[in-house]
Amino acid sequence: MARLYKREKIWYIDYHYKGKRIRKRTGTSKKHAELTLIDLELKIARDELGFIKKDITIDSLIERFLEYNKTNNRVSTAKRYKAVMDHFQEFLIEKKSDIVMVSQVNEGTIEEYKSFRKNIYINPNGYKIKSDEDVTESTRKGARSRTINLEVGGIKYMLNLAVRWDYIKENPINGIKPLKEDDKKLFRFLTNEEIQQFLDHTPQHLYPIYFTLLHTGMRKAEIENLTWGDIKFKLRKIHICAKEDWNPKTGEREIPISDELLDVLNDYKSKQSSIKSKNNVFHLKNSGHSHNLLRRELIKIAKEAEIENFTQIHSLRHTFSSHLVMNGVDLPTVQKLLGHADIQTTMIYSHLAPNHLVESVNKLGY
Does pTM surpass 0.85? Predict the structure, then answer.
């Protein structure tokens, strides 16, 4: 039952719809408020106020959403959304088996999903613990807040598309607030000694790849799509640019080639049987099992070199940028070299330049 009430000079309507309490401001006119109330009660009676247009099952919406992503987004983005939907469906099966239709999803559903993802427990054998028994802090393997926020963003994106596709009238989770990201994972980078250990244990056929990553800070997809035409030996630059089937994450950019990298690339080039500008430099793309090849080999090398807690290809990018900052390179320059769209992304390295601020104020000429 809807009701009118006045607070100071403003009239409001207070009503419940599908278990949710809603307060709506109407303005200073009582007459307008009364007309709005009548219209609202009619819409509630006809079920015209809610989110339903032509209801669809969540599984069917997810299926259409994933197909949409294959066509309209990058391959990496489509894979990320597929992982998000896998987590969401897992949650619905384990915790909310009564929710089948899109119209049943609301803010409460997503709040429960956030809790579900935050509190996953794994036993020593790698299996999920499905009860609260024998759970200790050491067994907790929940997703980090940033990951959960990105996943909720993916679900919200899907529901926005559902609005566009006329399955629902409006997105029921637009009011969801993100989690505070106070559990960010610290990035790992190699010390000078570890870099040498890593390269010393790198097999000859992989050496040019990891050496290039360490000296350019390229992303994994960028080195996989690097062609000989992208390497300007005379200009001593690498051009990260779009291909027919791939686009750089944050647009095109150029990376200078250091003396050491120039020697490695020239030596590697001299050993290739045929060089064409459109050929991939390192033959990593579309090689069947190559998706995690570099990471598997990196883990193996790190283990042999006795380098602890080093398991991600992206850590080579962190290593490149961290050493630039520690050697006095300013953050805007690092941003440009890394291809960060936002300087805030580059700011994660700011603490590595403790003398930067002191040196800056010492340059004052008065």
Answer: no
